[in-house]
Amino acid sequence: SDLAVIGLGYVGLPLAHEATRIGLKVIGLDVNTRVVDGLAAGKSHVDDLSDRDVAGMLAAGFRATTDASLLAEARTIVICVPTPLSDEGGPDLGAVTSAAKSIAAHLRPGTLVVLESTTYPGTTEEVVRPILEESGLVAGEDFHLAFSPERIDPGNPSFGVANTPKVVGGLTERCGELAASFYGKFVQTVVQARGTREAEMAKLLENTYRHVNIALVNEMAIFCQELGVDLWDSIACASTKPFGFQAFYPGPGVGGHCIPIDPNYLSYKVKTLGYPFRFVELAQEINARMPAYVLQRAQELLNDAGLALSRSKVLLLGVTYKADIADQRESPARPVARKLADKGATLTYHDPHVAEWTVNGRSVPRREDLVEALREADLTILVTDHSEYQADLLVEHARLLLDTRGVLRRLPPSGVAAQRTTAQIE
Ligand code: SAJ
């Protein structure tokens, strides 16, 4: 086969799909038999791919398997396994090392191996390379080795594998060129980094940059409330600067399996070298403080209306980590709900993507009818701005609304927002 993809999740499967689409012979390897059987049955378990996409892959010869011996046939092998946060605060490289061991057992001369999993700089050369060389083959000579960060943005309708520029960094110049020409077959723009460490660092820089800048506006949101400044408006104004400013928006916290996680890999690594990484520590602290701020704003809103949180019905809108996807990892909704429940609020939730939801081990009643739920709640807190939660609908039916995502900010200034007791997390 032209390509073997190890790890068929939200990174590996779209990669396999794109390579298959342009005619490459692709094998998918995963340890999870449910994943493999589901794919064999033409079912997609990834938001960004439909069952039709998977059927198309199968028709074009894609095969999913748990049998690592098939790696022996692959000219290129790409590792797309998860690197969750370990207890020590760095990446848990268990899946990466076991994938590398599987490869080493079947590695043939001339094969290109690429690591895509997000990790600290040095992993490709200090961790993966030695395991692969247990095969007796020498990296950079008998086989080729590179790192190429994944840039999948789950649920993003405009950017996919083919049109998101791909950074590649080779162990040697030759490795880099081979990796660049491999990806160049199905990715429009390929960028060569100086080496594997630069490519590993590029990914962490991208996501730490996001993490820190979200924390910046989150911290500003808290004092803007006191200053009487509509921060959302200031962000819209600052966004008119055509160069050098990128808008980030305050929210109830930072979720997902990348932005709150990836910067830890960097601070973990540099800490072992004796360096603090204060930007990340500060960003983590500020972002983690946002659920408490949401609670404070909720209490203020209810008190202004003469209600006590402990005797109020609070509706949470949207419990996933970002709009219009089903993923709940690190979603701030749960810390927000925990704090409200601890204060005695009666919680219900609405989320078209989440069929059941538990907080502090107790199931939170799910509301089906949005308008009815809005009308019955003493306070509605919009935590995740799913497309269904249109501003005019919220303003018309919600009795009290705490909009933590600035959905109402998208109303024209003359919008109905002015007519109702609404409050933003500024
Ligand atoms: N968030 C804010 N304010 C913002 C932007 C995001 O509060 O201005 C929150 C979101 O609500 C969410 C979290 O931060 O809870 C992460 O948001 P995200 O848009 O970064 O979502 P991810 O983690 O799914 O995707 C990111 C990718 N996002 C974009 O580039 C838009 C990208 O950084 C990576 O491709 C991906 O993580 C990854 O795999 O690293």
From TrEMBL:
Keywords for the protein's UniProt record, in alphabetical order: NAD, Oxidoreductase
Record Gene3D superfamilies: NAD(P)-binding Rossmann-like Domain
InterPro entries: 6-PGluconate_DH-like_C_sf (IPR008927), NAD(P)-bd_dom_sf (IPR036291), UDP-Glc/GDP-Man (IPR017476), UDP-Glc/GDP-Man_DH_C (IPR014027), UDP-Glc/GDP-Man_DH_C_sf (IPR036220), UDP-Glc/GDP-Man_DH_dimer (IPR014026), UDP-Glc/GDP-Man_DH_N (IPR001732), UDP_ManNAc/GlcNAc_DH (IPR028359)
Ranges where the UDP-glucose/GDP-mannose dehydrogenase C-terminal domain occurs: 315-410
SUPFAM superfamilies: 6-phosphogluconate dehydrogenase C-terminal domain-like, NAD(P)-binding Rossmann-fold domains, UDP-glucose/GDP-mannose dehydrogenase C-terminal domain
GO biological process: polysaccharide biosynthetic process
Pfam families: UDPG_MGDP_dh (PF00984), UDPG_MGDP_dh_C (PF03720), UDPG_MGDP_dh_N (PF03721)
GO molecular function: NAD binding; oxidoreductase activity, acting on the CH-CH group of donors, NAD or NADP as acceptor; oxidoreductase activity, acting on the CH-OH group of donors, NAD or NADP as acceptor
Family affiliation: Belongs to the UDP-glucose/GDP-mannose dehydrogenase family.
UniProt xrefs under PANTHER family: UDP-N-ACETYL-D-MANNOSAMINE DEHYDROGENASE
NCBIfam families: NDP-sugDHase
Name this polypeptide is given: Nucleotide sugar dehydrogenase
